[in-house]
Amino acid sequence: MGNVDSLARVPMFNRIRNWYVRQLVARRPIAEPLWQEALRRCAPARRLGATDQATLRVLATLFLESKSLEPVQGLDLDDAGRVLLATHACLPILKLGLDWYDGWHSLIVYPDAFVPHREHTDAAGVVHRTADAMAGEAWGRGPVIVSWADVLDGGRRSGHNVVVHEMAHKLDMLNGDANGFPPLHRRMDRRAWTRAFSGAWDRLHEQQRHGDELPIDPYALESPAEFFAVASEQFFETPAALRQHLPEVYRLLEQFYRQHPY
Ligand SMILES: [Zn+2]
Fold first, then answer.
1. Is 207 a member of any domain?
2. Interval between CA 222 and ligand 1 midpoint (Å)
């Protein structure tokens, strides 16, 4: 991907009319060794065909130019780490486009799981202080936060991808609060979405009550928003398992992400 001519063969790139963007990607593409390392560490990207990989590389280049990656607490985030984060982050929008990530700027990276200390007051006027260690967090109009340890761990824990998880929350919040209902495409059936997700939700809760082992990380049952984010992780990381156990959910995620990972 060293020049504009080779980029012109990438379908998505042809749609980018902006001359400045073309020049930017052509002059400052992700270097080949860094890209190869990202593919090695990101299984869903490795499984893509050559054309999709080239598109992902363009998106990751633009992601790194348009977003601010901010390591904190002394984390040393090198170029390979930045490219890996951008590669994970651009998987969900491979067929949607980078403008689905408009409206926010910062990706904050903690060295390890972080403990946000915050208080909220419930309906009875009781103030709760939460102090659970978190792998990631996405704010409505604000930054995305991830733990670098969990990013690295994702490759080892089957079906997990903290970056995809937080990006799914971001997509979900494009039409208001995170509620497991992102803005669907025009031809998608809103009722089919609600039916599939709430049906799967009910069945999983039932299985959980019986003490059965769940086919998805139980964290999915925290809320509809978490269900969508966790299912999205599995959609990209272990699509065969999601398709087998939650076929309707898998099919709708195919329509939403416009990808067919399995
Ligand atoms: Zn979440």
1. yes
2. 9
DSSP class of 20: H
Report how many helices (DSSP H) and strands (DSSP E) the chain contains, helices first.
13, 6
Name, in order, each residue with C-beta under 8 angstroms of 160's C-beta and a sequence gap of 6 or more. Answer: 150, 153, 154, 217, 233, 237
> Residue 147 — pLDDT band, cuts 50, 70, 90?
very high
pLDDT of residue 240: 96
- Domain limits at 123? 67-257
Sequence-ordered strand ranges (E) for 51-155: 68-71, 106-110, 118-121, 127-130, 136-138, 144-147
Residue 61 located in a structural domain: no
Q: What distance in Å separates the CA atoms of residue 54 and residue 31, rounded to the nearest whole number?
A: 13
In a domain, 248, yes or no: yes
Q: Is pLDDT above 80 for 86?
A: yes
Q: Which residues surround ligand 1, an ion (CB under 5 A)?
A: 226, 229
What's the 111 CA to ligand 1 centre distance in angstroms?
18
pLDDT of 11: 53
Q: Give the pairing type, strands 136-138 and 68-71.
A: unpaired
Tens digit of each residue's pLDDT (9 = 90 or more) over 214-245 = 999 999 999 999 999 999 999 999 999 999 99
Q: What percent of the chain clears pLDDT 70, i.e. is strictly above it?
A: 83
Residue 120's CATH number? 3.40.390.10
Distance from Cα 114 to the centre of ligand 1, integer Å:
14
Residue 109 lies in a domain: yes
The domain total for the chain is 1
